[in-house]
Amino acid sequence: AQRVTQPEKLLSVFKGAPVELKCNYSYSGSPELFWYVQYSRQRLQLLLRHISRESIKGFTADLNKGETSFHLKKPFAQEEDSAMYYCATARSGNTGKLIFGQGTTLQVKP
Amino acid sequence: EAGVTQFPSHSVIEKGQTVTLRCDPISGHDNLYWYRRVMGKEIKFLLHFVKESKQDESGMPNNRFLAERTGGTYSTLKVQPAELEDSGVYFCASSPRRWENIQYFGAGTRLSVL
Question: Do the beta carbons of residue A54 and residue A48 sit within 8 Å?
Fold first, then answer.
């Protein structure tokens, strides 16, 4: 079965510290991986997707097929990064359903 | 461009009552999705419309849930009768193209069944 695992419910770091939000997936076939973010009192929005290979707001994520991971990283956390982060997967090239992990709350302390 | 809109933002009902949630996707988006997040759990897929047709309804929990998308525009999700375990946040999302899998989410409807 398709599954996304985010092992940390809460990650708390100080401003300026590096951040890594972990995501592991299980998917038979060719998956597409995403990170979605929900800031306080805002809607869920796409942060980045693996096929774009881009950096958004200083965040990057590399798909590691050997480890079936798609960890989200940022070298220097900012207070405005505090939010709920969801890793999600879907079948590649298909407009089908997203399968989400349980989410990780990132708290960046001043 | 207006985003995905959902109404109401919050609904409080008693067990056994009926509630209807509405979603207006971004104009021109053929794909419309319903998800829900029950307290403490992950966001789970409910169903997917392509225009007015149900493409995938594998996530619908039981026959108390009925989704429609008349005319391929807005969609409604009716829960009848509501049970306590239906409480949660219901999200709607839309997507424009079959080959570009980016979904745009609404703000969600928080449903509280007492």
Answer: yes
Closest residue on chain A to B108 (Cα):
A43
Gap between the Cα atoms of B100 and A98, Å rounded: 13
In terms of CA atoms, which chain B residue is nearest residue A93? B99
* Cβ–Cβ gap A44/B91 under 8 Å: yes
Other beta carbons within 10 Å of A2: 14
What are the pLDDT digits (tens) for A19-34? Answer: 999 999 997 777 889 9
Which of these, B40, B55, B19, lies nearest to A95 by C-alpha position? B55
Sign of CA pseudo-dihedral B99, B105, A63, A26? negative
The residues that bridge with A70 in the sheet, in sequence order, are none
Model confidence pLDDT, tens digit, residues A82-108: 999 999 998 766 667 899 999 999 999
Q: What is the pLDDT of residues A59-85, one digit of tens each?
A: 999 888 889 999 999 999 999 999 999
What is the number of other CB atoms lying within 10 angstroms of the CB of residue A86? 25
The answer to whether B110 and B89 have CB atoms below 8 angstroms apart is yes
Q: Which segments of chain A are extended strands (E)?
A: 3-5, 10-14, 19-21, 24-26, 31-38, 45-49, 60-61, 72-74, 83-91, 99-100, 104-109
Q: Distance (Å, rounded) from C-alpha B81 to C-alpha B27? A: 31
Nearest residue to B112 via CA among B43, B44, B15: B15
Residue A95 is nearest to which of B41, B95, B107, comparing CB atoms? B95
SS3 A79: helix
